[in-house]
Structures are given as structure tokens and as C-alpha cells.
Amino acid sequence: MRSHRVSGILALIIGLTLGALAMPAAAAACSCVGPETIIDSAGAEPGSAVFTATAGPRAGNDIPVFVTRWLSGRPSIGALVLKAGPPDDMCGSTTPPAGGEYLFVTYQTETAGFNINGCSVQADVASPEGQALLARAIGRFGPGVAPDPDPPPAATPQVDVGSIVEGILGALGPVVLVVAFGVGLMLGLVGVLRRTRFGRD
Q1: Is residue 199 predicted with pLDDT exceeding 70?
Q2: What is the CA radius of gyration of the chain?
Q3: Which pLDDT score, from 0 to 100, does residue 10 have?
């Protein structure tokens, strides 16, 4: 009876020990710093960028996004492509749902300018947490640059009516003279014929 109890205790100790050995390895693999720290230090990290963007559907490791506000890093307004880590990243999601607007903090590598992984900031700006992080980023970097929602209308060419009329008259001048000459000639002939007829009568 006692030997069974000892064996049970040993098995429990071994199980706890193996669990303790396994947990630090997983924790070490995901030693991500908090999003607030990432935002605060982004300005000092070469190649980092902070911006909000609307995400498109992921294709392979590429996530097309449309930048809506540029806060820090290499400026880019409009469309660009993020390079994402593996979808099964154990530290967090690398595939923000398409259609949402997110606050991103990306990093640069030798092969791509805008990268994210499971530890990267990719906060939904429609959520309270995302709003708080966006406010923190704006407080850190300023309001940023956003696309102009109302671009100035294209300049309307001014129509010079006087020039148009002058051009028309210039083009029609010879025709008018010819017509006037013809009408005058016809009237003259009619007058001559009348006088001739009346003279005979």
C-alpha cells in the first residue's frame, strides 16, 4: 500500500517537473513586449512604421492594405503590401480580418519594408483597446498624414466668348462678302431688268 502511494507521488512529481520544463520553453518563444512599449519605441527603431490601414484578404504571406493615416516611419499613403508571419504563429494572429481598419506597427527586413508577426501591433481601431492605442500613437507622433477626403476639383477652363465670336467671324468673313456680293449683284440685275421692261412699255 505504501509502495503504491510512493509511486503515485513520484509520478506526480515527474509530471509536474516535465510540465515546468515545457512551459518556460513556450513562454520564451513568445516573450512579446506590450503594444504600448512597441508604440513608444517605434520612433527610435530604424525601419519601423506606424500607421492605420484597412486590411484586404491575405494571399500567401502578403496582406494588401490601404493606408488611412500615416503616423511614423517611411511615408506612404494609399495601397501597400504587408509581409506577414506564418498563420499559425504561436505568439498571436498574423492575419487581421479583411475589411477592418487597424493600427499597425511594422518592421523592416532585408527583403520587405513592412512586416508583421505574432508580436506586432495590429489593433482594431473600432475596439476600445484599438482606440486607446491609436490615441497613444497620435500623442507620441502627432496626428499624422491622411488622404485628402475632398480633393480640389479639376480646374475648369475659362471660355473666351469674344475670341470664339471673333474666330467665327474671321472664318465666315469671306463667305459673308461673297454672299453679300451675290445678293447685291442679283438686286442690281433685277433693277436693270425692271428698267428695261418699263422702258419698252
Answers
A1: no
A2: 41
A3: 38
